[in-house]
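Revision sheet: structure tokens.
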Amino acid sequence: MKSAIVLGAGIVGVATAIHLQRRGWTVALIDRKEPGRETSYGNAGIIQSEALRPHPMPHGWDELAKIATGQTNDVRYRLSALPHHLGPLLRYWWHSFPARHARVSAVYAQIIACAAPEHEHLIREAGAANLIRRNGYRVLHRDQAAFEADVAAADALREAYGVKFGIMTSSDLQQAEPSLVDTGIGGLHWLEPWTASDPGELVSAYARLFTRLGGCILRGDARSLSEINGGGWSVATNDGRIEAEAAVVALGPWSPGLLKRFGYRFPMVRKRGYHRHYADGSRLDLPLHDAANGYVLAPMTKGMRIATGAELAAPGGKPDVTQLTRAEQAARKLLDLGRPVELEPWLGTRPCMPDMLPVLGRAPRQRGLWLHFGHGAQGFTLGPTTGRLVAELMSGEKPFVDISPYCPERY
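Predicted:
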């Protein structure tokens, strides 16, 4: 029987472990924390079937100037941190030119289209349907030009891929979300995405499914990964060192750091994000993206969650809650937000590759070492889909989509 160690118990690692277990592998899932407690825990809980084109870096001087001068809350940066990001950001910018972005989007759409069906299999088997709604999410606009641009982009997606959305007037939005005291000029309702009331608990439910299938979850330190003379891999856990013939690096933003020891240099844009829950106030029916203020307000089990945009900070830099504070101020103008649940906001890092595509496949120079990371802001959406792809590759099956655009060799 084939054996594997999967490093990282976020949704990407958990999904990979499940798909390997189904194919007859003996699998140990290793993390320093409980499953789903890092990046997979901190998102807006949306399985985004409409996100068929990855978000490019802007090229217009107006947009870049707004970011540079701190006029937008979508992206925030610290000047002292830019040297850590400059190389990957320039490559991200290069891949964002229209022709290159179109090629990336054509590939990306293939895996996004599989996201909800792949989640559905796991949701059903894990008994997690109570955590999922299938009614989409909404976008609030205050600026007419931005609204029209959003509608035009949505129309292009509908024409190309058949995605479904509705245009909402201010009164439509007020009727749909009576707790809102400001509905701007209206917005969009993306009709097909799914939402989770507790993303971390959904990953935990998938992890429990993995153990029911015979998998093993252990606490351990991924940095202890080492190659065994004669073949195979080992890692230290709280229960002792374990060995397997294959290892999968599914550590999200921590993956490049580990892989440096094995001679690899993967450029990555590490985007910080924050969230906080609020209780005893009004609740929305569906998540709401406040387009002008760069955050999502999502109804969760623990209360209304504010999830922020992207912050470019130095590795290990101190938290900066400016984005969250601005988002909270804007949200309090929309509804009675209530009181913060957590004393300190949650902070996590999204692992974005410069070409906006995840890294999937065999490490070029080590036998039995597999790579699975770099999903950007769509790890929660794509984990089950790319987990299946990696498991198919490892098992000698033909992947259900062309895997070459995601290969590690491109770096």
